[in-house]
Amino acid sequence: xxxxxxxxxxxxxxxxxxxxxxxxxxxxxxxxxxxxxxxxxxxxxxxxxxxxxxxxxxxxxxxxxxxxxxxxxxxxxxxxxxxxxxxxxxxxxxxxxxxxxxxxxxxxxxxxxxxxxxxxxxxxxxxxxxxxxxxxxxxxxxxxxxxxxxxxxxxxxxxxxxxxxxxxxxxxxxxxxxxxxxxxxxxxxxxxxxxxxxxxxxxxxxxxxxxxxxxxxxxxxxxxxxxxxxxxxxxxxxxxxxxxxxxxxxxxxxxxxxxxxxxxxxxxxxxxxxxxxxxxxxxxxxxxxxxxxxxxxxxxxxxxxxxxxxxxxxxxxxxxxxxxxxxxxxxxxxxxxxxxxxxxxxxxxxxxxxxxxxxxxxxxxxxxxxxxxxxxxxxxxxxxxxxx
Length: 388
What we know:
10 helices, eight-stranded mixed sheet, single chain, four-stranded antiparallel sheet, 18 strands, alpha+beta
């Protein structure tokens, strides 16, 4: 039977089974529906969160040093009840995007809008905590994200004190047990008494996911959340992510190198390269019929046991130059179809099909899907996929 809660505004969601254990899955217990952060109506595009030309540069080499372009003019949107996969090779800027959305980094330029309110308007500590409770992050490295001098119970309770201060001590303990069981860490009471060094890397990663779930979020920023788990547990957590979307309406930004898991769980795929968004669209369409040459190269790197063994590789050229890169396509040194214009003009994301976009002078030249502003071609905004 679903649990009930005497607090106003709380709803219950039916239980399911923890994969591989048969224990009840408590992902649906006591979802507080009222947002803590005062926000406006959803954007006209229907987006829960949206970035507008988001840019992050890092200064390197001292006062007269150089500028590392980690993210450049990134515009994306995440809708309600949607899982968006952000894929790309190491160094493409995916984790930097997550840290910008989590307010760990300040953007160099551009803005982030959450439920109609720019994050630049958040001034008080209360508003920042309220935002972070609704948009928590699961970090990529579970070894550095947990305090080794405290037990798992202390770590969980500390987060709940900050982000769900209405809970008493017994309620915090019960909530911690529920979310640990939801990610397959049983018996939860015994796990709460352990220290991080007593847990494996995969178990620590699941604890990070349980922390995010305990805050009753609207959007979870999941930075490689299953990269350190074995295959059987990985599928179980991906199913948990899907249930959170379907049963509780939680959206996720799922950062991953694993194309197969992105196809399995995501509604849309965003492909990044060298700090730029190079392609986006519905998962099945992008992965079955990629437009951008880099997306094709990325898919060609996925092992196929049926393919013939080839000595040569389609991946040639140099890695992206992101330190003082200048104008031009950052993929041109590896692109098999690069042209002269690619070294002079930076391509922008244009709509190449309904709900799809790509940034390529050859595969998706600027045309009817782009808008000219101040003499520069800019992509028409692409909202979430209909029905997401």
